[in-house]
Recover the amino acids of this structure.
């Protein structure tokens, strides 16, 4: 039978319509996104209040944000009643310290962290100084480039993203060594070249640790010259200042002088007023930072939410005694010409923070000193019939100078103000560990497990020092902007899909100084580069963090 042309057109049109009708339900059900978070209160990281929205992501990027998104996801998460925020960014972390040992990075993921910034306090993975060989020129043995560092991080497959500064102490150690002397012009040229190379390969700033050797031996002019390459890239000089107690204000002045001379950004690391007699200096510290900003210096700071710091026990001992390295330092502790002077200065430092019972031993390698871990040094010394200073010296000698300590020295009221300040942001200054496996050892500072939940639980909910949206801003967009991570820290279309979902009423830290191996509560979901890393307490076997660079 031959159809009339009009009839043929009708059949064709009807058939097409029928096929379209049959296909339509399939089209509506087909996944348009890898993952959609539904109905949560979205805090975009800008400091704005939260709004109930859906967030869709595909191939590691945020693809849509809106109310009741019509598309479907391969995986969907119901976030009604929960906060949805950019993944937290730790601007001052030591979370790569045992990365090869345990790349799970449990205490980082379980805090809601998706990015950490390492290479802090003047120490970074590159450059590293090899053992000097006979006839070698200083600096010839410096090993490993930042490109190689990033390749090694990616090979390990971390759980979180890792950005890194170049440590100026590591640079000095590689070129000058452990001696207290100025660098020669040739050495300065080598050190500047190392900084330039690291920045070209993806370092996100430069850091100093001026209470630690050999960084403590660097004069102002050296710091300025090493920071000048930062200016053209708009990256910061992050400094653990030369002093955080009696000479705090002088140390801030020096930090500002470095940034002024180098024309770079300034990030004061873990700002604190250490020791009760210095607690009243916070107003003056703030005033110096604000005056620097008025003068055109982009100055800011960070802080962890605890009143105790963590460092090495050797940090109670004077910098001058460490000239020449660890072996020389240990010899001076008992040498006739130096022992009494060192003793007086170390006891004075302990007195400044309130005495030996304000020193908690965090870690020791020697079997004889393992019982001291997690104990206050004064009380422990008394329990074994020892003088606390003499015990400190003996422990340092038995452990080749490497004994970890926690010092209780800061004011809770000052901490409220530091966290709430418009140019303050949140950090942990902590490492990564787990409640099981090779990194469960010693007695680490609880900040490594609880800093970011603690800010919300204690300083938002309990002490009301800042609002939830302010806290999230200080954990996300603000730190990202400081180190040039332009595609992170915000929930915006096109940004990297790093997301944390949490219960703002229940989020809390549980780690303590006595029991640090305890994970926080209230973190429901953590997404790293578009892949769920944690959901309802269960870890994914897949690790999707990577080395990241500014820009």
């Amino acid at each position: 039978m031959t159809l009339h042309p009009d009839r043929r057109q009708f059949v064709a049109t009807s058939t097409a319509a029928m096929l379209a009708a049959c296909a339509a339900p399939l089209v509506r059900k087909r996944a348009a996104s890898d993952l959609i978070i539904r109905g949560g209160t979205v805090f975009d990281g800008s400091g704005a209040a939260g709004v109930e929205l859906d967030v869709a992501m595909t191939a590691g990027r945020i693809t849509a944000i809106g109310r009741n998104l019509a598309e479907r996801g391969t995986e969907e998460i119901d976030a009604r009643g929960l906060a949805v925020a950019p993944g937290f960014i730790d601007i001052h972390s030591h979370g790569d310290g045992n990365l090869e040992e345990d790349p799970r990075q449990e205490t980082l993921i379980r805090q809601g962290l998706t990015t950490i910034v390492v290479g802090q306090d003047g120490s970074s993975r590159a450059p590293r100084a090899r053992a000097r060989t006979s006839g070698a020129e200083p600096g010839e043995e410096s090993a490993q480039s930042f490109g190689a560092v990033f390749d090694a991080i990616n090979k390990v497959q971390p759980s979180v993203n890792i950005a890194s500064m170049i440590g100026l102490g590591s640079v000095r150690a590689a070129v000058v060594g452990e001696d207290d002397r100025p660098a020669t012009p040739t050495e300065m040229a080598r050190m500047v070249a190392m900084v330039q190379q690291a920045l070209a390969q993806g370092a996100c700033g430069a850091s100093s640790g001026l209470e630690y050797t050999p960084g403590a031996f660097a004069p102002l002019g050296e710091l300025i010259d090493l920071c000048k390459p930062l200016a053209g890239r708009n990256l910061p000089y992050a400094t653990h200042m030369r002093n955080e107690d009696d000479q705090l204000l002088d140390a801030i002045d020096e930090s500002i002088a470095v940034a002024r001379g180098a024309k770079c950004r300034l990030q004061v690391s873990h700002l604190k007023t250490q020791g009760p007699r210095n607690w009243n200096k916070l107003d003056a510290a703030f005033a110096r930072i604000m005056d620097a900003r008025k003068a055109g210096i982009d100055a800011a700071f960070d802080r962890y939410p605890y009143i105790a710091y963590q460092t090495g026990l050797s940090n109670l001992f004077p910098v001058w005694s460490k000239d020449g390295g660890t072996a020389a330092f240990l010899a001076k502790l008992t040498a006739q010409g130096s022992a009494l002077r060192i003793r007086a200065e170390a006891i004075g430092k302990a007195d400044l923070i309130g005495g030996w019972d304000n020193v908690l031993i965090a870690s020791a390698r020697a079997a004889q000193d393992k019982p001291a871990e997690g104990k206050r040094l004064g009380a422990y010394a008394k329990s074994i019939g020892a003088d606390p200073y003499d015990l400190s010296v003996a422990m340092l000698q038995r452990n080749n100078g490497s004994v970890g300590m926690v010092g209780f020295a800061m004011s809770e009221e000052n901490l409220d103000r530091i966290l709430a300040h418009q140019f303050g942001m949140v950090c942990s200054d902590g490492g990564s560990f787990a409640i099981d496996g090779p990194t469960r050892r010693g007695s680490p500072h609880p900040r490594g497990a609880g800093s970011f939940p603690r800010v919300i639980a204690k300083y938002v909910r309990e002490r009301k020092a800042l609002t939830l949206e302010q806290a999230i801003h200080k954990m996300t967009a603000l730190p990202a902007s400081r180190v040039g991570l332009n595609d992170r820290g915000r929930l915006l279309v096109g940004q990297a899909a790093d997301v944390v979902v949490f219960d703002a009423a229940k989020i809390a830290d549980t780690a303590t100084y006595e029991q640090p191996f305890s994970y926080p509560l209230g973190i429901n979901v953590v997404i790293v580069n578009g892949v769920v890393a944690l959901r309802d307490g269960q870890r994914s076997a897949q690790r999707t963090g990577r080395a990241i660079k500014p820009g």
User: Anything to note?
Assistant: The two ends are 69 Å apart (CA to CA). Residues 311-408 form one domain. The chain has two domains: 86-307+410-539, 311-408.
